[in-house]
Amino acid sequence: MVAEVFTLNNLFVGLLFFLTASFHCAENSRQRRKIMHWGAFCCGLGLCNQHTLVLYVLVIVPWVLSRLHARKELSFLGLVSLGFCFIAGFLPYIYLPISSYLSTARWSWGDQTTLSGLLTHLLRAEYGTFSLAKAETSVSLNRMLQ
């Protein structure tokens, strides 16, 4: 069984909307804090799966922070705590260099044992959206020059 990237992305988008609505309807500070920590974790985990989730994160995060600020519930320690939850969502990326080094991965997207190889994978430089856009642009330019 394999989790399909785009279907899993839809799951994370739905989860973020559910958490956002739950945050909005939360009755007290304790509920909001619990929901926002789960939201930060899900944002990080969702971004591990598909980078297009950033389009939702860039809208939801400022809204949540503004709501917290308006209710006087925003603090430095709260932001640090949210940051740790967000980074914890990226923990699946720890597996990449380990499995690449041990050669235990069933499928591989290149060598992630070096920092440059890991960054190439994380930024989807070889096969991601930006790579497709570059290919489309070069094809269009070649057609125009002919």
UniProtKB/TrEMBL annotation:
Transmembrane annotation, as ranges: 6-26, 38-64, 76-96
Alphabetized InterPro entries for the sequence: GT117_domain-containing, TMEM260-like
Keywords assigned: Membrane, Transmembrane, Transmembrane helix
Domain of life (superkingdom): Eukaryota
Protein name: Transmembrane protein 260
